[in-house]
Amino acid sequence: MKIAHYAQIITPDVGEPAAGYGVNDITVRIHDDLKLSILLLDDGENKGAVLGYDLLGLDKPFVQKIRKDTAVLLGCPEANVILTCTHTH
């Protein structure tokens, strides 16, 4: 079994739209960085990925695009690509 982990900060710039505070809210400061963590798995026959976003949520078309693009990159079925959103204060 091969396992790899990757993490990246995905915090938007100040002045960008943000979810969770109201309709059409714009960020005025950065409290904490938002992150994306990826766990890649390969048992020699099957590959997959778990992508953990530090976000409140993602819309369905964006999730479908990420799953499709990730599956193409890994050479695996889209069913082997899992996305989660786990933002907390």
List keywords for this structure.
89 residues, elongated, 1 helix, alpha+beta, 4-stranded mixed sheet, single chain
Can you put this structure into words, describing what you see?
The protein is an alpha+beta fold. It is 17% helix and 31% strand. The protein contains 1 helix and 4 strands; from the N terminus they run E-E-E-H-E. A 4-stranded mixed β-sheet has the order 1-2-3-4, covered by helices on one side. Strand 2 (35-42) and strand 3 form a beta hairpin. The mean pLDDT is 92.
How much helix is in the residues? 10-25%
Structural class: alpha+beta
Number of helix segments? 1
User: Quick one: how many beta strands?
Assistant: 4
In short:
The protein is of the alpha+beta class. Helix content is 17%, strand content 31%. It has one helix at residues 60-74, and strands at 2-9, 35-42, 47-53, 81-85.
Secondary structure elements and pairings:
Layout lengths: L1 E8 L25 E8 L4 E7 L6 H15 L6 E5 L4
Parallel strand pairs: 3-4
Antiparallel strand pairs: 1-2, 2-3
